[in-house]
Design a protein that fits this description.
The protein is α/β, with parallel strands linked by helices and about 575 residues long. The protein has helices at about 40-45, 75-85, 100-115, 150-155, 175-185, 190-200, 230-240, 280-300, 385-390, 395; strands at about 10, 20-30, 50-55, 90-100, 120-125, 220-225, 250-255, 310-315, 320-325, 335-340, 350-355, 365-370, 400-405, 415-425, 430-440, 445-455, 460-475, 480-485, 510-515, 525-530, 565-570. A hairpin with a 3-residue loop joins β8 and β9. α2 (about 75-85) packs across α3 (about 100-115) and α4 packs antiparallel against α6.
Length: about 575
């Protein structure tokens, strides 16, 4: 690098004896040679198509030199690595980048560097805004409850060159004590963790924000169940509106979580668990790399025209793959479900109602926040949301959550686009958290996640909570269930219930929250739904096949406009 630091780098496919070729670069902090990153197998798939693959441990991680502090220095290191690649005899001077999560962020950092050789990127389950907020569940809804999984990630991954796996007893008070004990045992601290606790933001880009940089073609690979999905979709929708960028945005949205488990396999069995079995890993990697190879064939090799790639390829959960010219889909409409009969919402399912119109009279429901009896998180690890795909029915029936359910129908309801909740809330505490989960309530009583979001408030009034985008079929006989809670533990740091730091408090305070409903306080769930039609045109496979070779498909139409649970918004209403 420009400051003399050496970054450990593997090169695959440079010894093929062929003419100089385009290079696929990945820069990651998770050990480039580990089974977890499986880059030997990824490289095989790219080199078989004539690419050179370069994989690098980022600064301060594993075999690379330099200070260990994530989300800093990646702009310059990305530029310098690309510059090094272009000077090698096996390089034809063109570079693309590929990878998930943090190694999606290093792609955006390279975009910020504006190296002219960078011609295309494929960021997967990531976002441009990870940097100061890895410990924030980024729902785009203003201030957020602190994401403890993100804080633990910082403590374990970004302490030194190694990754330190340790259990954290988050039931201790103050919460910070459990981490301090671990740092004492390791003999080192995570600077990134200390910044989170101190509320000190990092500025990740010592260049222009990627939105303001020179546009390059982007294939966004989004997971409907990814815990970074809200932020990733914000990148896509924002860039799709910007001159220069709009023309080179492509989207693949799959029913996957952060670790690439599929809804259709959930919960994972031994034969479908790619973190445990090589056969399952091989199947996953085909779908993982296939779309990227096709994308690079267009924008690095030029062997196909950009028009051969669908602009949007998305999977409708429980149905299959669709294509469209844009997202959200032009044929989709906004619909609202109002929270009714709140007095029943603190009881067991079915609780209150989700209905097409609000109550004519005002109503309210209260739910308690008890720091000694926190609402349990459904998934022990939201990066693996679909590996277990937990049944959340027991949580719905707790008396410290609110639940509202819609009616079952004999027709499917197809959700395709953004979802958000608008809640009129207040609290006895000066600060309080609101966690919202939209669940699929099956005829057998099981309840499983569709989308989720959260926000932190410090005054009474209307709070809008983004729950993310989805493509999901609510099948005949199933119902929507909306859950509202004041905690989500251990995924999120419990609120102190006061102005004291939640990290440092030894005596967090209980509080009482109130939800208001009715025409004067129209608390509601806002959906994006497909109109009802007949048969569903789809391709049974997925993007494992080369995209330009897929049979043509038409945009989806589902069952939404006349579904008894929803009412179409008036013109001009609802999400855009």
């Amino acid at each position: 690098m420009r400051d003399g630091v050496h970054l450990a780098t593997d090169v695959y496919g440079a010894d093929q004896g062929a003419a100089p070729a385009p290079t696929i670069l990945a820069r990651l902090p998770y050990d480039k040679n580990s089974r977890y990153a499986f880059f030997d197998k990824i490289a095989d798939r790219f080199t078989a198509r004539g690419y050179v693959v370069v994989v690098q441990d980022v600064r301060g991680k594993f075999r690379s030199q330099g200070r260990t502090l994530g989300w800093t220095g990646e702009v310059d290191d990305g530029y310098d690595t690309i510059e090094w690649i272009t000077r090698q005899p096996w390089s034809d001077g063109l570079v693309g980048m590929f990878g998930d999560s943090y190694y999606g962020f290093t792609q955006w950092s390279a975009v910020s560097s504006q190296h002219p050789a960078l011609r295309a990127i494929v960021p997967r389950v990531t976002s441009t805004t990870n940097a100061p907020g890895i410990a924030t569940y980024d729902s785009g809804s203003g201030r957020q409850p602190l994401w403890l999984e993100g804080a633990t990630y910082q403590a374990q991954v970004w302490t030194d060159n190694d990754i330190h796996e340790f259990d954290v007893d988050l039931g201790r008070r103050p919460v910070i004590a459990a981490y301090e004990e671990a740092f004492t045992a390791i003999g080192k601290r995570s600077a990134g963790f200390d910044l989170i606790v101190g509320g000190i933001p990092l500025d990740p880009y010592n260049g222009p924000h990627p939105y303001d940089a020179r546009p390059v073609p982007v294939l966004h690979c989004v997971g409907w169940f990814d815990n970074l999905g809200i932020a990733h979709m914000r990148d896509y929708t924002e860039l799709a509106k910007r001159p220069g960028w709009a023309a080179v945005q492509y989207l693949i949205a799959d029913t996957i979580d952060h670790e690439n488990y599929f809804l259709e396999d959930a919960p994972a069995a031994p034969e479908t668990d790619h973190l445990a079995g090589d056969a399952a890993l091989a199947r996953m990697l085909d779908s993982y790399t296939g779309p990227a190879i096709e994308f690079f064939d267009v924008f690095l090799k030029g062997v196909a025209h950009p028009d051969s790639l669908p602009r949007v390829r998305w999977k409708l959960g429980h149905v299959g793959w669709r294509t469209s010219a844009a997202w959200p889909l032009p044929e989709a409409g906004a619909a609202e479900l109002y929270l009714k009969e709140p007095a029943a919402a603190t009881g067991a399912v079915p609780g209150g109602k989700l209905a097409p119109s609000p109550d004519g009279t005002s109503g309210s429901a209260e739910w308690r926040y008890d720091p000694d009896d926190l609402v349990p998180s459904a998934a022990a690890d939201t990066f693996l949301q679909l590996r277990d795909h937990v049944d959340e029915r027991r949580t719905l029936d707790r008396d410290d959550v609110l639940v509202f359910t819609g009616p079952a129908s004999g027709r499917p309801l197809d959700l395709a686009g953004p979802v958000h909740a608008v809640l009129h809330v207040e609290s006895t505490a000066p600060t309080f958290d609101i966690f919202v989960r939209l669940l699929d309530l099956a005829p057998d009583g099981t309840a499983r996640l569709i989308v989720r979001g959260c926000a932190q408030a410090d005054r009474p009034g209307e709070v809008e909570i983004a729950l993310g985008h989805t493509g999901y079929r609510v099948r005949p006989g199933h119902r929507l269930a909306l859950m509202i809670a004041g905690s989500d533990f251990p995924n999120h740091l419990p609120n102190s219930g006061s102005l004291e730091s939640p990290w440092l408090t030894t005596a967090p305070k209980a509080s009482l929250q109130k939800l208001r409903t009715g025409t004067a306080h129209p608390s509601r769930l806002c959906l994006t739904v497909l109109p009802e039609s007949g048969e569903q045109p789809l391709h049974p496979g997925g993007p494992v096949l080369p995209l330009r070779h897929l049979p043509g498909t038409t945009p989806a139409s589902g069952a939404g406009a006349h579904h008894p649970a929803v009412r179409q918004c008036r013109e001009g209403g609802g999400p855009k």
